[in-house]
Amino acid sequence: MVKYTDTGIVSVILEQYSGKRALLLAPLVSGRKGHYKDLFETLVRKGFQQVRVDGRVYDLLSLSPLDRYKPHFIELVIDKVIPDDSSGKRLSESVMSALHHGKGSLSLLLADSGEIRHFSKNLMCPVSGLSFPEPAPYTFSFNSPQGACPRCKGLGMVSKADLSKIIPDMELSIGAGGIKPVGEMRNTLLFRQMEGIAKKYGFSVHDPVKDIPEDALNLILFGSDELIRITGNSSGGGSTSQMVSFGGVISMIEQGPDDGEELSQKRERFVQEVVCPLCNGSRLKEEALGFKIDGLNIAQVSAMEMDQLQLWLAAVEEKLDKRQAMIARDVLKELRERTNFLIEVGLEYLSLDRSTRSLSGGESQRIRLATQIGSKLVNVLYILDEPSIGLHQRDNRKLIDSLKRLRDEGNSIMVVEHDQEMITSADWLVDMGPGAGEKGGRVLFSGEPSVIDQMTPSEIQSLGSYTIDYIKEVRRIETPSQRRPGNGKVLELKGAKGNNLKNIDLKIPLGCFIGVSGVSGSGKSSLVNETLMPILSRHFYRSLMDPLPYDSINGINNVDKLIEIDQTPIGRTPRSNPATYTNVFTEIRKLYGETQDAKIRGFKAGRFSFNIKGGRCEECKGAGVQVIEMNFLPAVNVLCKSCNGKRYLPDTLAVKYRGKSINDVLEMTISQAMRFFENVPAIFPKLKALDEVGLGYVKLGQSSTTLSGGESQRVKLATELARYSTGNSLYILDEPTTGLHFEDVRVLLEVLQRLVDQGNTVIIIEHNLDVLRSVDYLVDMGRRVAPRVEPLLPQEPRSR
């Protein structure tokens, strides 16, 4: 890469091209389509006579408009010179003019040999003439317009419509809904435009899509500037006619406004995110990728995982010359330190270009922790909430060592945790309990963990602490004495090769409890959540999820349905709660609608719903709280002044069942409600299922927004337990023990074992060793983290 000054260009031309006939050219257009008629007319008005177009010189006055559909290279002929000492002033003026019109670049074309030489005031490749602006930090940032790829705007991905989803059945007509995003025929502008296209191309919107001419179908899908005549009815009863252009169905989906919920759903269904074809996912402009160190551009370095980056940073200084090494010394020192911090907290499998949306809560916390380690602050109190989430036991020890290092530098670390190794590594332990919800809220133990080792059995029992009971093995999660052999049927996935998977095969025995383990980044989620689950989801529910690449799947007919149970919230509004999610509230409302009080007042079951008008408080719309929006701050929920948080109107609350109003029932814990409705067959089993998964302390009407991820997951499990089971369902759970105490893990395992006992198959991705000891069949992924992941280890039933 070279760059020149104005005088430098003149000097080079005089020294190297003296006495040779040459043309000074200013580049105007480089590889862009268009006829450029206006450009040529402008140049003529400015007094210029010739241009060089696609390698040939033309007179501007006789030049016709170019082919608008082909890319062109256009250079303006500034001057024809024979460089020598006597023409120095003229040459200098011509060079200045060429640099002005060429925006800092010019070319010298030798008339006799056709040789061309490129010059630029910016960084430039002397062979190709490709010019780059002076690099700055923002040149290498995809968050800056100066560095971001112009196609994907620095995202690395672009939206692309999936034609197979837009037209799934070529036998259907447009009128019958053959083009899925627009639906069936309606009296709208869109359909009138398509009728106009049909009339012009000689077909009907009621013909099968397969019979529509290719040109017409392309126009319907991709649009055109071509004008189409459409007709309609005027307000006076007559007909109207107008000429309009049609943007195309795909353009409507890809580029429509983001404020419509319906359009947003269409985007999700028919548009897939694909790697940007211009930057190939690097997110940067071509100019930024042209700068390399040790043969690697910044995108290639960012794609390295931390352990690879650590090795590269250690060796790269030796490959720099003396001047480069001096410039890079301090930067490399800082990079090495920060990379080491990330590796120390167990994140060696992450790459620098990893999207933050794909990080777990634990990974995000550990990144912030690495930042704090590097800050060298002292006398700081750090509070971490379950940083071990998603960590393999090997990585957990690294995290503990990092926390101790932060402590040794003079800081205080407070960690909210359920991990036993983290608890026993603490200098001081505070245990809360004894139970959850209303049964908790007390400090059971506060002191050094070593004190626990000196306690007698009676002292431990008097504490009433589940945590200490499990640490001292007074309580334990028992390992099953027998393993299920399965029902003899299998589900076999072959050739899984997405992300870091190495063309692996997976054979799943059905009717078993199956564990999938492996260090963080070994490919567990890629195999189960991103390959197996989308395949089954598409088969059973016609899902539009795209699985990662694979060869084939066998035995899919041995499964009746797929159920994914994750820790996502069961609802996003205060009106959503365990009672509504499990549908038990419908039965409770029916019961209240049958009471004598309700019949006297003429109330039906709908009167007791807080989601519809009638019996609810309209001030808060049945939420019990009112949301106050705060500028630049999160919204605040305050108790409704009208109903005082009771959700309903007074006459609705006057209806009682066994002395309790509908609001009184919603305020009951699940355990209390189970006893209250024990003689109601339609209600009791659902409440019992919730109680059995350890949610007896949760209120029936407790807002779903206040439930933890583990609580939400158990509500979903209880809902499945209360349903009629076919005995051939496949359940997939991804780290369900996240955020769970030892006792909660035991309860969860009992529920999962019950599901398997009914003949179902449960696949669980886990790091928890108690869970992995309890499975019938174990699949362990790779001995090392990606990308050196190895094929699956032998898949055998766990030995006793």
From TrEMBL:
Keywords: ATP-binding, Cytoplasm, DNA damage, DNA excision, DNA repair, DNA-binding, Excision nuclease, Metal-binding, Nucleotide-binding, Repeat, Zinc, Zinc-finger. Residues 7-108 form the UvrA interaction domain. Its main location: cytoplasm. GO terms for biological process: nucleotide-excision repair. The lineage of its organism: unclassified sequences, metagenomes, ecological metagenomes. One of its GO terms (molecular function) is zinc ion binding. This is UvrABC system protein A. InterPro entries: ABC_transporter-like_CS, P-loop_NTPase, UvrA, UvrA_DNA-bd, UvrA_inter. Residues 162-255 form the UvrA DNA-binding domain. GO terms for cellular component: cytoplasm; excinuclease repair complex. It comes from bioreactor metagenome. It is found in: Cytoplasm.
